[in-house]
Write a structure and sequence with these properties.
It contains nine helices and eleven strands. The chain is globular and about 50 Å long. The N and C termini lie far apart (36 Å). By secondary structure, the chain is of the alpha/beta class. The relative contact order is 0.10. Strand 8 and strand 9 form a beta hairpin.
Length: 227
């Protein structure tokens, strides 16, 4: 996909931030649109179907977390990459962001050139996803990566994007033991700084949401991880 065909939606309630980021990314050749709050972001995302959304957390009318969750419920936006760009850098805020369905979490302030580099790294996932859309069938469990669905006994299990990608990774390599470094690289990308505790939290949430027995079943046919 060419840069001129890539659409990026910037969401922030500070006009200066939108102007600076928008200018630097438009100079790279991307199509740029903007929104000043979460509610407007959801409406624009549904209309424009952006490939990437860069969004602040603290905003009026609807904050970034709520907007991210709303966007993730829209089928046409299931493959849209979402990253938060915010001054809130606490660990719990980052975990909440990933739980809401974000792919990345970038702390302000950040130099424009570094942000452009991060955007390029995030957009590389578009190409990766084009080559990795497939369905796994394991022990009666269907894992559809393209639709982000897990089907077991005709019942659909819904997971946030990161939890799904982690589950898909563990189920994709029979007998393989995954290290923390491999999980971070495959699920979060090596351009993202994520603590080991974040992986632990996602593993725990997976156990809770898909059920301990299902999780043991997946491990029982050779799917392991090392954390």
């Amino acid at each position: 996909m060419k840069k001129k065909d890539i659409k990026i939606l910037l969401v922030d309630d500070e006009p200066d931030i939108l102007e600076i980021i928008g200018y630097n990314l438009s100079q790279e050749g991307y199509q740029i649109s903007t929104a000043s709050n979460g509610k407007e972001a959801v409406l624009k995302a549904k209309k424009e179907l952006p490939h990437l959304i860069i969004m602040d957390v603290m905003m009026p009318e609807m904050d970034g977390m709520e907007a991210c969750e709303a966007i993730r419920k829209i089928p046409e936006l299931s493959h849209t990459i979402i990253t938060f760009l915010t001054a809130r850098s606490e660990d719990y805020s980052q975990v909440a962001g990933f739980d809401a369905g974000a792919d990345d979490y970038i702390a302000k302030p950040i130099k424009p050139k570094l942000l452009v580099s991060k955007v390029k790294a995030l957009l590389r996932r578009l190409k990766d996803e084009e080559h990795n859309s497939e369905t796994l069938n394991v022990g009666g469990i269907e894992i559809n990566r393209e639709a982000y669905k897990i089907i077991m006994e005709d019942k659909e299990i819904v997971l946030p994007r990161k939890e799904f990608e982690l589950f898909y990774l563990l189920a994709s390599k029979p007998g393989k033991v995954f290290t923390r470094e491999e999980i971070l690289d495959k699920v979060w990308g090596n351009e993202v700084i994520v603590g080991g505790r974040t992986i632990d939290v996602h593993i725990r949430k997976l156990r809770e949401k898909i059920g301990e027995e299902l999780f043991k079943t997946i491990k029982g046919v050779g799917y392991k991880f090392e954390i």
